[in-house]
Write a structure and sequence with these properties.
- The protein is α/β, with parallel strands linked by helices.
- The protein has 2 domains: 3-198, Rossmann fold; 203-294, Roll (Methionyl-tRNA Fmet Formyltransferase, Chain A, domain 2), CATH 3.10.25.10.
- The protein is 25% helix and 26% strand.
- The protein is built from 7 helices and 15 strands.
- The strands form 3 sheets. Strands 3-2-1-4-5-7-8 form a 7-stranded mixed sheet. Strands 10, 11, 12, 13, 14 and 15 form a 6-stranded antiparallel sheet that branches.
- The longest helix is centred in the middle third of the chain and has 25 residues, at 158-182.
């Protein structure tokens, strides 16, 4: 039995760790070259694979004929994708003898598509998880092999939730891969009528709409805080990134939305519903600090735009 692992990020490393501990031969790892312009806060799957003596490949387009031919030459029983960033097309999906599987960071059919961890926090979900499913032509639409649920607390950030997802993925793969290889794993069709789909996110998507409620704004802030680019607004023509905040009461101060009120040493902002307290903030390109450090330059009655 052999597997080819397509992966990246900590989730790819969690998959390789599970396969290694199971004693499943990994013929090759297909991954991405690190982007020098990206915040590399996560581990390198390529480095991990090399340390285990596994062949590692970095295709720009894995669906090109030369790469399809290479993958076919390994004659894998299973192809497993874990946070590989490119769509794997049918020429490759048809190669493995047993299955072509993907590990997705949500409880499918909800949150198909990209950035599921961030989107689940943005929408205030209290329950998430990971899904191992068969890959088909349409992204994240194949039959489910297994799922593992995680709780999402109202203080989770994308980073803390990602760690929960990694642990869940590792346990799910340790439990499910032997069943896949033995041919005893279930195949549960997804209910496509329940599917939701979300696309990729860009740094500019972190801009705050102060007409939303304090809770909605808080969810955005914790969904895109470090190691992501952060939620932001403009004050006096300068970009201010809000790294940490706390929703307060629903009553507000009777101010226009986006207006700052300084009360009892706290920096509060009026939202469409309630107040939000700014805890850690920073001008673009500067380290973040406690909001109280800005009270000489940011004053009561200033307004975000």
């Amino acid at each position: 039995m052999s597997i080819i692992l397509f992966g990246y990020h900590n989730m790819g490393c969690a998959a390789l760790r599970a396969l290694n501990e199971l004693g499943v031969p990994v013929s090759a790892v297909i991954t991405h070259k690190d982007d020098p312009d990206e915040n590399m806060w996560f581990a390198s799957l390529g480095d991990m694979a090399k340390s285990l003596g596994i062949k590692v490949y970095y295709p720009d387009d894995v669906n090109k004929p030369e790469w399809v031919g290479l993958i076919r030459s390994f004659a894998p029983d299973v192809i497993l994708s874990c946070y590989f960033r490119h769509m794997i097309k049918e020429d490759i999906l048809n190669i493995p003898k047993i299955a072509a599987l993907n590990l997705h960071g949500s409880l499918l059919p909800k949150y198909r598509g990209r950035c599921p961890v961030n989107w689940q926090i943005i929408h205030g979900e209290t329950k998430g998880g990971v899904t191992l499913h068969h890959m088909v032509k349409k992204a994240d639409a194949g039959d489910i092999v297994a799922q593992r649920e995680v709780e999402i607390s109202d203080t989770d950030t994308a980073l803390s939730l990602f760690k929960k997802m990694e642990d869940a993925a590792y346990g799910l793969l340790k439990e499910s891969i032997p069943k896949v290889l033995e041919g005893t794993a279930p195949r549960i069709p997804q209910d496509h009528s329940l599917a939701t789909y979300f696309g990729g996110r860009r740094p500019d998507d972190g801009i705050i709409n102060w007409d939303l409620s304090a809770v909605q704004i808080y969810n955005l802030i914790r969904a895109v805080t470090w190691p992501y680019p952060g939620a932001f607004s403009y004050l006096g023509g300068k970009k201010l990134i809000i790294w940490q905040a706390e929703p307060m009461n629903d009553k507000g101060l009777g101010l226009a939305t986006g207006m700052i009120g300084i009360q009892d040493g706290q920096m509060l902002v009026q939202t469409g519903k309630g107040l939000i307290r700014l805890a850690k903030i920073g001008w673009e390109g500067t380290p973040y600090e406690n909001a109280v450090c800005y009270m000489e330059s940011i004053r009561d009655g200033d307004r975000f735009h």
